[in-house]
Amino acid sequence: MSELNTKLVIGNWKMHGCLARNAVLLNTLAHGTQQWSEALRIAVCVPFPYLAQTQELLHNSRIAWGVQDVSAHTEGAYTGEVSAAMAAEFGATFALVGHSERRAYHQENDPAVAAKTHRALEVGLTPVVCVGETRAERDAGRAEQTVSQQLQVVLDTLSVEQAMRLVIAYEPVWAIGTGRNAQAHEVRAMHAVLHRLLTAADDRLAHVPVLYGGSVKPDNARELFAEPGVEGGLIGGASLKAEDFLDICAAAD
Ligand code: 13P
Q1: What is the CATH number of domain 7-252?
Q2: Does residue 99 carry a catalytic annotation?
Q3: What is the pLDDT of residues 82-115, one digit of tens each?
C-alpha cells in the first residue's frame, strides 16, 4: 500500500470526444485544477487522434495525459496499431493496458497484456494494468482467483524494478458503465488481495498504487477513495463531464 498519502485519478474517455468538446473539457479541467496541490495526481487517457490536441491544451497544466491501449509490438507491419513510442512522442505519461473492454472485444489475453506492459515500460510510459472479474466469475466465487491470475501473469514477466513502475486498476466488469459501483467492502477486500500479491512478489512493490474503477461518481468517490488500499480511481463516464471529474478529483485530494 502506498506510504505516501497521494492519490491518482485517471479519466478514461473511451471512444468519446470531438475536437470542439475536448477543447472545452480540457481547458475547464486545466483551469479548474490550477490551484490544487501537486500531491494529487490527475491524468486523462484520450483516443489516439486527440493526443496532439491534449498535449497542446494540457502541457502547461498539472494534468498528465495518456492513451487507452498500445500495440503489443514495437514497430512494423501491423495495420491499425499504434505503438507505445508514438504515444510517448506526444508527451503521454500513462498507457492503460488490459482494460476489460479490450479483453472482451479484442480478445486480449493475459500474455498480450504482459507484452503491452513491456512496450509501455520500454518507452518510459507508466502502464496502468487493468484487472477485474465478470459478474459470473464473482457469483461463482472466483473473483479473487481471476483477478490474481490476471495480475500474476504480468508480474511474472517483469523484474522488480519494472514492476515498481506499474499502476494497477481494479475494475470489476459488472461495475463498469452500469451505475452500480462495487461496495466499499468488496473494493477493500480486492485491493487487499492485490496489495498482498504485489508484496508477496517483493516488498518493494508495496508502493505500487491500486486504483478502483467502475461507476465512480461524485457521490460515491469520497467513500471509495477512503478505503484502505485504494490509491485513487480510474473514471469512465464521469470523466467526460468537467464538473463531475473535478468533483471526483476533489474527493481524492
Ligand atoms: P465507468 O466509470 O463509466 O463505469 O467506466 C469505468 C472504466 O471502465 C474506466 O476505465
Answers
A1: 3.20.20.70
A2: yes
A3: 999 999 999 999 999 999 999 999 999 999 999 9
The whole-angstrom separation of Cα 206 and Cα 199 is 6
CB of 173 sitting under 6 A from ligand 1: no
Structural domain spans, the chain: 7-252
Contacts of 214 (CB under 8 A, 6+ apart): 132, 171, 172, 174, 175, 176, 178, 181, 182
What atom in ligand 1 is closest to the CA of residue 169?
10
Q: What is the pLDDT of residues 177-196, one digit of tens each?
A: 999 999 999 999 999 999 99
* Ligand 1 binding pocket includes 214 (Cβ within 6 Å): yes
> Rounded to the nearest whole angstrom, what is the distance from the C-alpha of residue 3 to the centroid of ligand 1?
26
Structural contact between residues 250 and 242, judged by C-beta atoms closer than 8 angstroms: no
State the catalytic residue, choosing from 108, 171, 191, 195: 171
